[in-house]
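Fig. S4 source data, part A: sequence.
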Amino acid sequence: MSMKFEPGIHLIDKPRGRSSFSMVAQVRRLSGIKKVGHAGTLDPQAQGLLIVLVGKEYTKRSDEFLKLDKTYEFRLKLGENSSTGDSEGEITIISSVEPTKAEIEVILPDFSGKISQTPPQYSAIKIDGERAYKRARAGEEVIMLPREITLHSLEILSYDYPNLQLRAKVSSGTYIRTLGEDIGKRLGTGAYCTEIIRTSIGQLQLKDATVLD
């Protein structure tokens, strides 16, 4: 799609497989403006809403968006674990037990309110100036420290074993792949994310975002 980005706050629908940085670079080319940034990264294998700020006046406002709550819709595959927490990693079969929807609903309240979460090695967190997932993919050992996050809500959207689709409203800094793995541990089945879509940041919605070719 050929378009011209003016200085301002732009909502972009980031596709799966692309980094947040590559989206910023594309908007920089389309706008012709050097000062372009984003307010809250998405891992390459996640998709959905990305806030892109164009122009110096707007890039300095990134802190306004970084701490906002976010909503994700994500799909888990039960019965297996992945070394990366998503379908890109090495898959290990954990269990053939098929939990009922009622059994899943019973454990979801365990993931509400303030909880401790350890971000995955394959994340966009910077370690000594480099993304953790780049270090991990290079075979380096990456030590991630636990952090406190808040889960405001967690609900089942659909369930057809082994596929479980959920929606979560969470605080900034929450890692959905880790949440998926923790749900799998709690069920005793194992789990990893096959799809992650960020649908909102604060009051900003994915349905209002621009799709870039």
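Fig. S4 source data, part B ends here. The chain has a mean pLDDT of 92.
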